[in-house]
Amino acid sequence: MNIEQGISLRPYNTFHIEAIADHFVKVTNETELIDSIQTAHANNLEIYVIGGGSNILLTKDIHGLVILNEIKGIDILYEDDDVVHVKFQGGENWHECVMWCVEHNLGGIENLSLIPGTMGAAPIQNIGAYGVELKDVLVEVEAIEIKTGKKHIFSHDACHFGYRNSIFKLGQNGRYIILSVILRLSKNPVYNTSYGTIKEELELMGVHELSLLAVSEAVIRIRKSKLPDPTILGNAGSFFKNPTIAEDKFEQLRKWHPTIPGYKNEDGIKVPAAWLIEHSHPENATSWKGYRDRNYGVHEKQALCLVNYSDASGSDIFSLSERIITSVQQAFNILLEREVNIW
Ligand code: FAD
Ligand code: NAP
Questions:
Q1: Were 17 and a residue from 9, 27, 58, 233 both cysteine, which residue would form a disulfide, CB within 3.0 to 4.6 Å?
Q2: For the chain, how far is it from start to end, CA to CA, in angstroms?
Q3: At 1, is the pLDDT very low, low, confident or very high (cuts 50, 70, 90)?
C-alpha cells in the first residue's frame, strides 16, 4: 500500500475536472483497504472512495484520503438448474462484469451494458437503464463501516433501494465502503426488450433469435448513438434525476404542454428531466440543449448531460446546473434534484 501526496484527480473522474487530493491510495485487496482506513483514522483524515469516478463532480481540492477501489475478483457461490449466485468484488469494472455474464450465458444485467464505473458503486444509486435496475438481481452487499472498520452484510431489503437511490445514498451516505456485491443471475433469461428502441435496434441489427449478446449489443449501439463518450468528452451521464410529480399536477401541466411525457410509478408520474430542460431555456439563448458557455455546456444530443469541453472547473459546471434548476423551476414549478455526487 502506497499513500501518495498531492495527487491530481483529473485521470480519476469522467468529467476530467482538475482537483488535488492531499492523500491518495489505490487498494487492490481487503487488507490494503483496512490499512488505509486505519491510517486515515490515525491521522484524522476524512475518507473519500472513488471507483470509476463516473458519478462525481469535483468542485474543490480534497483535504483527506482518497481511496481508489481496485479490488478485483469474480466467484460463483451457488448454482442450480435455474440460477447462479455470483460474488463480484467492488473494484471490478461494471461493464466488464456485464460482459462476463453475457459470455457465461447468465441473464439479468444485459440491459445495463456500457454503464461506466465499478461494481462497488452500482448499489449506491441502484444503477438503472432500459427498464432494468440493479435491485432486480441483487442478493446482498458486503460493506465495511468506515468508523469502526467492521464488516456488515446488507440483504436486498436492508439496502432500501429506490429510484436511483439506496440506503448508501440516503441516511448512510459516506458511512460504508462497499466491498462486494452478490447478484442472482438466470440460466434461463427472460429478455426485456420492451423499453425504448431496443426492439427497433434488434431489427436493424437483423437479429431473428434473441440472445443475451444481441440484447447487450443493441443497448450498446443505442447508448453509443446518444450519449457522449466520457473518454472523449468529459461528463458524468445524467446530471439530474427524473422527477416524480403528483398525478393532478401532471394533468395540469399537460393542459399547457400536451406533449409532455410521463410514466406512472408507485409515487405518481415520472417526467423525463431531459424534456423539462429542453422546454425551458437559458436567459441568453433559445435552448439548453447544445448550450455552451466557454469550455462547458449541455450535450447537443442529451439535455441531461452536462459536459466539460476542455478545462472547465467543477464550480463552473455546478453553477450551470443551478441555472438549469432555476430555469426548470420557473417554467414548470418542478425542482430538479442532482443525481451526480458533488464533492
Ligand atoms: P464513482 O463516481 O467513483 O462514485 C460515485 C459515488 O459512489 C461517490 O459518492 C463514491 O464515494 C461512492 N462510491 C464509489 N465506490 C464505492 C464503494 N466501493 N463503496 C462505497 N461508496 C462508493 N448511471 C445509471 O444508473 N444508469 C446509466 O445508464 C448510467 N449511464 C451513464 C453514462 C455515462 C456516459 C456516464 C459517465 C455515467 C453514467 N451513469 C449511469 C452514472 C455512473 O456510471 C453510475 O452511477 C456508476 O455506478 C458510478 O460508478 P463509479 O464507480 O464511477 O462511481
Ligand atoms: P430515453 O429512452 O430517451 O427516455 C427518457 C426518459 O424517460 C428516461 O430517463 C426514462 O426514465 C424515461 N422512460 C422512457 N421510456 C420509459 C418507459 N417505457 N418506462 C419508464 N420510463 C421510461 O432515455 P435516455 O436518456 O436515452 O436513456 C436511456 C436509459 O439509459 C434510461 O433508462 C436512462 O435512465 C439510462 N441512462 C442513465 C444515465 C445516468 O447517468 N443515470 C445516463 C444515460 C442513460 P429512466 O431513467 O427511469 O429509465
A1: 58
A2: 25
A3: confident
